[in-house]
Design a protein that fits this description.
Elements: E1 5-8, E2 11-12, E3 15-16, E4 20-23, H1 28-35, E5 54-58, E6 64-68, E7 81-83, E8 90-91, E9 97-99, H2 102-109, H3 119-135, H4 143-151, H5 162-174
Helix pairs in contact: 2-5
Bound molecules: FE2/S2 (inorganic) cluster (2 copies).
Length: 183
């Protein structure tokens, strides 16, 4: 008995993927790892709990959201625009990283992670959060609870979260236009 397959094409980190026949029910994280060679998205719990596996989906209305790839089938993403951890840094024409994203840079400056297993998920969560603030700035007084809410679903077994929190707060405070009442 052969496993039924269906075609899938999507845009990942700004590039259209080659059309592929993919088994029905294949989870997105396996598609990223095995078909695209993008292994930066981490399989943690595999049950939708830890959020290590999230990618960013760019929505037609200009918004962005996180999606868990361990519990979401690859075909759900057919035709969609997806960003993975590999897509955050700026690269030169040889594909070499020449500049980290502001979130990545701050996570390093704050020593936010230890083993780093959860970090791709935190980078994606923080990026979605900052992008939301660009569209809908909030009052300064709302910032700390909003960061807590944005990162709340992500589990880290190493660091205790404080340094992730502080790094995201730094990014927001140092990026013009994210707060209604400035710094
Ligand atoms: S690996 Fe996907 S939520 Fe834990
Ligand atoms: S840095 Fe190790 S799990 Fe978060």
């Amino acid at each position: 008995m052969s496993i039924p397959t269906r075609p899938i094409t999507l845009t990942v980190n700004g590039k259209a993927t080659a059309p592929a026949q993919v088994p029905e029910g294949l989870m997105m994280i396996d598609f990223l790892h095995e078909y695209l060679g993008l292994t930066g998205s981490r399989l943690g719990c595999g049950q939708g709990v830890c959020h290590a596996c999230v990618v960013i989906v760019d929505k037609p209305d200009g918004g962005s959201e996180q999606m868990r790839t361990c519990i979401t089938g690859a075909h759900f993403f057919d035709g969609k625009k997806v960003r993975t951890i590999e897509g955050h840094a700026k690269r030169n024409e040889k594909g070499e990283v020449v500049a980290l994203s502001p979130i990545q840079q701050k996570f390093i400056e704050h020593f936010s992670f230890q083993c780093g297993y959860c970090t791709p998920g935190f980078v994606n969560a923080a990026t979605v959060f900052v992008e939301k603030l660009k569209r809908q700035p909030i009052a300064r007084a709302q910032l700390e609870p909003a960061i807590n809410e944005a990162l709340n679903d992500h589990i880290c077994r190493c660091t205790g979260y404080v340094r992730y929190f502080e790094a995201v707060r730094d990014v927001v405070l140092q990026t013009p236009g994210l707060l209604k009442d400035g710094k």
